[in-house]
Amino acid sequence: MQLSFAAATDPGLKRRHNEDRYVADADLTFFLVADGMGGHSSGEVASTTVAEDVTAFIRETARDSDNTWPFGLDPALSPLANRLQVAIRRANRRLAALVEKDASLDGTGATLAAALFGGDRLAVSNVGDCRAYLLRGGTLSQITRDHSLVAEQVALGLIDSTEARHHPLRHVVTRAVSGDAGMLVDIWEMRVQPGDRLLLCSDGIHGVLTDAELTGFVGISGNSLQDICKTLIDAANGRGGPDNATAVIIEVGGTGTV
Fold it and tell me: Which of 35, 49, 173, 232 has the largest count of CB atoms under 10 Å?
């Protein structure tokens, strides 16, 4: 199925460096947003390592599903979803090896949201608080679940989404790609249809914009996908730009990069 896509990233107004990374690979039909943690140099190392290693595994297994699989497969998942899950787990192992060699990287990590298309099938994954949203029929739905302290409090009914957006501990994640051997990877599978739009974004976007605002921006018709990405980042910066902001938008049934 033909895909159109666009991506943009910005350091925001409060950070000197951009520790976000994204992948938008038309040949692999693979897309990813990664948000580095652990300070400037460590955060950049983590997000870059994760983005590159996940993409490398997706590339290596694009035509070879029999080899280069460092972990066992999950029989409950499709081959497409297994590729994505194993790719993230391998990147986690790669980061663990880097930390073992360089003690200055201790405490580094990255959160991510990723999407891998296969025909009309889609596998989506996240670790941490990067998010994936699906816009279908004018309705925007969050596919992923945040692995964060405030998300757990929202789920328990202790605070609402508005309070979560301003909570002093909103950046505390409970799961990240950080080399932990016990890291869990969430996976969702679905069928896509023409007209669907998928948004992958870091918390520099969804942490300052409401779901209603995201729906309005992502659902804009007549604007290019690149313009929509820019609009999202401009809107986040208009709220003070407190963090690095990255957005990747994919439209199903499009005509290529827009």
Answer: 35
Alpha helical stretches, state H, 180-239: 203-206, 211-218, 225-238
pLDDT per residue over 140-184, tens digit each? 999 999 998 777 777 777 777 777 777 766 677 899 999 999 999
Percent of the chain with pLDDT over 70: 92
Phi, psi of 78 (to 5 degrees): -70, 165
Residue numbers of the domain that contains 16 = 3-252
d(C-alpha 70, C-alpha 184), whole Å:
16
Beta strands in the chain (DSSP E): 3-10, 20-25, 30-37, 109-118, 121-127, 131-136, 139-142, 186-191, 197-201, 245-252
Q: What does each C-alpha distance from 176 to 32, 54, 153, 160, 257 come to in angstroms? A: 15, 14, 18, 23, 30
Instruction: Give the CB-side neighbour count of residue 203, counting CA atoms within 13 A.
Output: 28
The stretches of 21-128 forming alpha helices (DSSP H) are 40-60, 79-101
pLDDT bin (cut points 50, 70, 90) of residue 103 is confident
Instruction: For residue 183, tell me if it sits in a domain.
Output: yes
Assigned domain for 257 exists: no
